[in-house]
Amino acid sequence: MRAQFVLSEIGVGLRRNLTMTFAVVISVALSLALFGGALLMREQVSTMKDYWYDKVNVSIFLCNKTDAATAPKCAKGAVTAQQKDQIKADLEKMDIVENVHHETADEAFKHYKEQYSDTAIASVITPDQMQESFRVKLKDPEKYKVVATAFAGRDGVESVQDQRGILQNLFDLMNGMNIAALGVMGLMLVIALMLIVNTVRVSAFSRRRETGIMRLVGASSFYIQMPFIMEAAFAGLLGGAVACVLLLVGRYFLIDHGIALAEKMQLVQFIGWDAVLSVLPLVLVIGLLMPAVAAFIALRKYLKV
Length: 305
What we know:
alpha+beta, 4 strands, four-stranded antiparallel β-sheet
């Protein structure tokens, strides 16, 4: 097959259907940008989980004097020194525990004042109202239930809390956004495929005379179909390239500059450029192959040889 002929046919087809080709490029770009964004969102959630789950602790809150009247689990009174020693000893014996830190009521009061000094209730809180606690660092944060089962309900223990629960709502929100992005991507993908099929049909109809002549002179099915397939692939590749630009610009303005989330949310571990760059080849490949396959299937029906 002569490359010059194929390229000229591609140019003719793109010029004849310029508006529809533009629509294909935009729809493919948006759907692939959402696809790449969903992949990056999933990577972001995974990165944040790895970062934060490694830092969170299991907190064992101990009963104090005020809890005896309000918390049923502390009906026997405040935790005793013997109970605290026994809890700490049992924690240190557990293989899943990496280290144990005892936070006194005075330390808890100090931390509370540092974090909530501007609130009205901070002025009436006293150290004796604060709970002592053991901050337990686990080797595997997923094994929180082992600690909870061993110490919940023990004398002197008011509650056992996994700090991962505080972060779980955030992760659930991000996962929900990810699912929504995938849903919109699916809709845009269907629209893009419909546009590709219609574009191929219009292009094939507008060149029915040329294809008829090619049939008469014995041209193969592949020879006739190739320009149409390459037109669709070229439009899809342009859409993929636009999607890559959108992902790069989005990462640049959302995290590094513009909105600059990296500066405003310094406690969040954001994905790096390497994660974005690793997604771009997949976006380009899908942008190239998806329209080509759709065009090939459409041509089997509308260009029977």
